[in-house]
Amino acid sequence: MAVTLRELTDDNRDAVLALRLAPGQDRFVGSVRASLDDAAAYPEANAWYRAVYADDTPVGFVMLSWNVTPRPPHIIGPWFLWKLLVDRDHQGHGYGAQVVRQVAALVRAEGATELLTSYVPGGDGPAGFYERLGFVPTGDVDADGEIIVRLPLTAA
C-alpha cells in the first residue's frame, strides 16, 4: 500500500497526535507531540512536517529541517530528516522506507544533493533500516551522541 504525506490540520491533528511507538522505541524517537514541541523550540530549523497516511489511515509522522543554514550542534542540514515515526500497529509494512524515498525525492527536486539524519546507536535501533536505504555514516556524531548519516541524492 502506497503512503501519502499530508499536512496536519484541525481535522487530523488528534489522530496524528495519538500515534504511538512500540515498547522500547521511545529511546530512539520522540512522540509526535514532542516533535512539534521541538519544531516550536527551534524555529531556525525551518521544520517541515507531515502526517503519513496509508489510504485514509494515519500511520506515521515525518519532520525535516528544510533547507536550513547548518548551525551545529542544534541545527544540522541543510536537509535533515529530523523525525520519522511509524505507529506501533503499522510497523513492518514498508511505510518508513516509502516515506524516506518520498522525502528524498522532494528534497532532490529542491536541489539537495544529500539528505542527512541521525540515530541513537544500539543493537535494536534504526541503524540497519537507514543502511538498507543507502545512508552512510558521515563520521560525525551530534551533541546527543547520535550517529549522523547521509543519503547521497543522485539526479532523478
UniProtKB/TrEMBL annotation:
Residues 3-154 form the N-acetyltransferase domain. InterPro entries: Acyl_CoA_acyltransferase, GNAT_dom, Sper_AcTfrase_N. PROSITE patterns: GNAT. GO terms for molecular function: acyltransferase activity, transferring groups other than amino-acyl groups. Pfam families: Acetyltransf_1 (PF00583). Gene3D superfamilies: 3.40.630.30, The crystal structure of the spermine/spermidine acetyltransferase from enterococcus faecali. CDD domains: NAT_SF. It comes from the Bacteria. This is N-acetyltransferase.
